[in-house]
Structure prediction request, 221 residues.
Amino acid sequence: MELRTLEDLQLQTTASKAKKDASSLDQNDFMTLMLQQLKSQDPFKPTDNTEFISQMAQLTSVSGISEMNENLAGLTKSLYSAQLLDASSLIGKDVLLETDFAALPSSGNVKGQVNLPTSTTALDIEILAPSGEVIGKVPLGPQSAGAVNFEWNGVGLDGERIPPGTYQIRANYLNGNTLEAAATEIRSEVLSVSVPAAGGSPQIQVQGLGTVSMSKIIEIS
Prediction:
C-alpha cells in the first residue's frame, strides 16, 4: 500500500474543496489530515516517530496562530472601546485648535490666542465676512513675543452684535514697519467624537469647524 504524505493529502483536499486556500487551514483541518494519513499508512511501514512529531508540531503551530489571531482581534476591540471612551470625555469641553475660522454663538464670545514670533508695537485681530470685508476688530496694542490671548465679544465695527455664524479670523502685527500675518488658534466646543473602524486617531466634531483629528488639539479647557 502506498504511503501518502501530509503534503499529498493537503493537495488532494485542496482540489476536492474547490482550491481552498491553504492559509485558511485551521486546527480541525490539520487533525483530519493527520487522522487520514494514519488510516492510509502501510501497517508494515508505520509513520516514523520523528515525522509524526514534526506533524504534531505543525498542528501546534497552527493552533497557536489561530489563538493569536483571536487574541489580536480581542485586543483591537478593547483598544477601540478605550479610545472611544477617552475621546467621549471631551464632549462639551472647549479645545484649542489652529484655525482661521471661529463660530460665533447666539450669545457669548469667541476666544483664542496668537503666537507672536517677536514682540510688536501693534497686534490686531480682524473678523471677516464671507465676502472678505472686515466687519469686526479687536485691537490688542503692543505685545511681547509668545502666546497672546484674545477675546471677541461678537460686536462689529458698527457697534452692533453680528449674527451668529462662522467667520474668518485674521491676526496682523507690526514687525518694525512691516505688517505681517500670524497664525490664530481658536477655542471651540466639542460636539461629538468618533473612532475610525479601520484605526487611526479619533475624530472630534467641533462647533463651527466640522470634523477634526483629535491629534490636532493643542489644549483642552
